[in-house]
Records
---
Amino acid sequence: MTLAKRVFRHVLFMLVGCWITTVSLHAGPVVIGGDDLDYHGSWSGSSNLAGWKYIENALKGMFQPPPASCLTRPNDGTIAAIGAPASGATATTGSMIGGAAGAVAHAAAMLTPPRSVNYYEGAAAINTFFTGLVNGTNRPAVDCGSSLRFRW
């Protein structure tokens, strides 16, 4: 194979790779912490600390005003906490029962404007949430799982 053909194939591969990457990124950003931030953080009474601060900062980045906002699909501005009990929303440390719910509740409260969090715990509630997501009745800006794995 000639040098020109090898260069052309390399450039073509890069362009196709960039196009595929660009297409897949239209779904929105993904925060992958690879850890359990909800267990390693807390609420001081006036601010989030450690892992909970990381969650707050991730949400702040997503809810930036346009055009910087990465939330491009139609949404109602809420956060869906999947697998986290609403009863845990008042938790102040990750070691408390419902710590994931407390982490997202306190992070959402620190956003400007503060965001509402809807909690879906248990198989029936989670199935109902996803059914509503598919048929368009649930339109959260951000979905996050019990250990706060974000999806947009």
Note: Residues 30-151 form one domain.
---
Amino acid sequence: MREVIPQYEDENPQSPRGALLDNAKHLITGDRNNTYGPPTADFQRAAGILNAMGYRALGGRELLPHDIAILVMGVKLSRLTWKYDHQDSWTDTAGYAACGWECALEEQAAEEPLIGLFETPHAANAVCTIRNCMCGESDD
């Protein structure tokens, strides 16, 4: 006999996904925001530190605050591959995604270039030298 999986309405505040998102929202707008300051400022400080240490984003540009959100989400995803049922890592991943989005919006409003995976600053070169780049100018 097949197991019946309960279906949740989007408005159901008791759904596991809703509870997780509510918890993430509480953490990023309350406790952690009060402890570390706004994520845009916190991630800007982290980007500055990593840039000073020589780290760079894809294409060689300096790291921006949204990159920091992506990096810490990568750590959380790595932890989830090790222990997929650790709720804290799921909650933190959702929170970092929201913080990264806020950083991206602030960067866009400041007219800083948001260079993504498919838009690379080197695409004007005759032949791209970045291995597996998606710019279409590679000699691979």
Note: The two ends are 53 Å apart (CA to CA).
---
Amino acid sequence: MKTLASTAAIITGLTLLTGCERQYAKQDFALENLGPPSVDVTGTWTASWQDPKRGATEAFTMDLRQKGTNLAGAAAFMDANGTKADVTGQMSGTKLRLLMSPHPTAPYHATPETTWLGTITNGTIAGTWYFHGRVDRGYASTGPWSASPKPATGAISQDGAANGNQPIRSETNRTSSAAGSRR
């Protein structure tokens, strides 16, 4: 009995010394049933996530497709590895749960799968991410994230002015043949 208590104390001490983070699994995250989705998140989202342990913020984009309560798509991270991930998930009311499964990027080892929980408020998503399994030393296993819809290319601002991303066509300034000629 004394040996078991000593072993537990040693493991606890080592965990504190090495800074091990809690390990999460997919099964840890159930989506609360709030009824059918109250918004459609289909589209491209610009997002960022923070690692509070490293004090780092990294950007990524997500292309999401929503069909009923189910979500699918892809993510591209603006990190040194150029990480890409498949995205699956569910929605209920204004809540969503995404699972990102990164593609291994040589010469780096695979990034762990990550669950992203979020709430949609005023057209933006804010929530918390959770790495699954063991996390590399010096990295957090959870932290905040947020996302906003990416503006459409060629969109018109609320005052009706072009945003500068409008395609330029040669026929825009041509006189139509129906306008006639004034010679």
Note: The radius of gyration is 24 Å.
---
Amino acid sequence: MKKHIKLISALVTLAIIFLLVLLSIEFLGEYGWTVLVLIPFLIGFLPPFISGYQTDLSRKNCYLLSFYTLGGAILSLLVFALEGMICIVMASPILILLTRLYLEIFCMQLTLSFSDTLLLFFAPYRRVCSSK
């Protein structure tokens, strides 16, 4: 199991994402927030989190694992005809940026305490507010 933990973590994440998209479509009738907020969060967080329990991951491996999972999620949206090609092309930059943001927050959380992470995240806002 330790040998294939990266593949398992990516597949578990893809299964969760697929179920969330189906639930959003069937019960909520829309899936904008799910696709643009929740899915990038899960892709940036879950694969490195699951794999990190079994093996040590470098920052590069965290990035590769998350972006391979993002590619799998985009591919599954096309294969299962949940989304069209033009919509995926238009949403891809947002998905990539948000996945990277959530992955950065996750990587910071590994090396910093929670309060330090919040301080770094809100530091630009504090500077803007104190300049008045």
Note: DSSP finds five helices and no strands in the chain.
